[in-house]
Amino acid sequence: MTRGAEVESVVDASSPLGEAMRNKLILGLFLPLQEGAWSPSTAPRDTSWSYEYNSMCTKEAERYGFDLAFGLGQWLGKGGYGGSSHFREHELDPLISSAALAAETSRIMLISTVHVLYGWHPVHLAKYGACIDHISGGRWGLNVVTGYKPSEYRMFGLEPIEHDLRYSMAAEFTEMMKTLWASDDNVTLNGKHWSMTDAHILPKPMHGRPVLVNAASSSAGLDYAAEFSDLIFITSPGGADPHQAVESLPAHNKKIKDLARARGREVRTVINPHVICRETEEEAWAAYQAILDNEDTVAADNFVAAFTGGDNRSWRGHSRKQWVVGGNVHLVGTPEQIVEWFQKLHDAGCDGMQVNFFDYLPDLQLFGERVIPLMIEAGLREGPAR
Fold first, then answer.
1. Number of domains in the chain
2. Of 80, 77, 64, nearest to 303 (Cα)?
3. I need a surface site. Which of 83, 132, 256, 361 has the fewest CB within 10 A?
4. pTM exceeding the 0.90 threshold for the entire prediction
């Protein structure tokens, strides 16, 4: 199958991604669509997986000028990761949630995670995505995930697929969607894994095609990102400690961007900090320690085992304690210290921050009121929401 025509209008200045790129740092919110969010801990908080709660988070993020909101996708059995917290047993579907949030927001980009190898056909997702794109006024994006957990594949009656083959299949799937989005005529394609005869979708996405995203660390995953993605969610090779992260990230970011430039493309890298911000450093570290002191041991054990027991190449530098807190890089401190770390991560080659919190709404509100004005002052963000 030949490569489809690249639709460059997705990064036009008038598109949501083009507007986001006017900032020195793209700013995203990792939504708590799943029970317990990122931390298998029973420390007190009001964070909820419910739609109402996620809607409030998204609208607050939009009010504070965030560029995008994003939810992960997962498929777990009864009890989730277990423990007294039933960690991640409940989760809202990110594709359906994005459609609902599109009707409640006006500016923020909405990125949906979809496991494209779990029974999807490119025609389905090209059509559904274009529909959500129109509901949102051109603000929808797709995070392409292949999946790696054998239990998830078997939930759909499928056998696990070898690592590099998964990305070859994802590439064919993405090419077919791009062709459907770009073509004014019926499309007939016969690939190795999917075929279509006289397929056609209308309406077309509003900016040529939606924003395409993926997360990867392996060679096959990074090759996919370099070929297709506008944004790639990266992980710190040095683990969650920010000192080690900023040492390991420059080479990692350069490798990814060089791969894209060799294909005549530009890709922006976005990292996921767990932000624990308080007015004093002592308060911030006390909040960090409270998460650890209230660890749900059974859930934490299962959570760590699920990510380290398969052929997933990301997150390998993280300790068990860092998994309990959650998030890829832990930024703990005052608003001024958080902004200093954002600057250092940017200097290490990161183009965006996809932040998550422990107690979402109060933490998000403190971030919006105290951190974002300092980001503007530091030149990392442009100013108030448009």
1. 1
2. 80
3. 361
4. yes
